[in-house]
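Table 4 source record.
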Amino acid sequence: MSPGRRFVQVASWQPCLVKWQRKINPDSFMKTEPVLNRRDFLKQTSLTALTAAALPATTSFGAPAAAKKLPWKFCAFEKPVMFLNYDDTAELFAELGFDGIEAAVRPGGHVLPERVEEDLPKFVEALKKHGLGITVLTSGIGRADQPNAEKVLRTAAKLGIKFYRTDWWSYDLKKPIWPQVEALRPVAKELAALNRAVGITGLYQNHAGYNRVGAGVWDIYEVIKDCDPKELGLAFDIRHATVEAGLSWPVQFQLVKSHIGVAYFKDFVWESGKVKSVPLGRGVVDKKYAGMLKASGFNGPISVHVEYGEGKDKKVFAESFRKDFATLREWLSA
């Protein structure tokens, strides 16, 4: 019997119950609360459900469960909290409501490349206990033939990691720029071929810097445009794009949007001619980028980077990630 049919039958008993109550004890009947009819019951039930839905569940760090309703997977770059062990790192980002982390597996990282086969599975297992995974592996890999490159990538792929960030390339400013761009194309193709063989996607991050390849975005697009984005694409960083391009960052985004595998969010201000990182929404980065990213049909992971603050205070960085994550969800929900 359907719930609706049961309700109708119970409601049909109410007139008989009322007559019986009046017959037994008229005085006590007058003092009883009125019985809800079906329409009032449904109205109150709906109101209660709406009220409950408006109050998001939270964790000990105040991460709303509503974040899971957005269509993207969200991760956090663990760089500011690498002083934590694997279990504490997993616990922190799980409580903040992230789906995974961006893990540093590079020289000086949370996992050292030479120990990747021993330590990366331990990190993955710690994350798995809290329902997380490594969404992006941040590496120091810039060439297919460098030491530990294939070992790191094969270990990552075996553990189910789908994306890794490459190392950056740099220009020699004493030499012509264009020949250096052209010389990087075969390097990129070799790296893409290794990624294809391993079964993982490499991502080059556009990063501000006077001699950094990709700072202007157009040049890294020239290097990788003929590569399959599933083998070698971009980790598009709106903060660094805005630092370098100013008002013309939308041109950069339109140029490379077909090759974006992961989107990075963070913010900055100019202070005495220098770049200073600040909480998301407090700086120069334009929130309309979130709308443009949505409109482009982007469905890859989104990574939150916190690059302000210092020291080794877990609560301080947890609050920074919480606030930036909340701002990001607000931008993407608009």
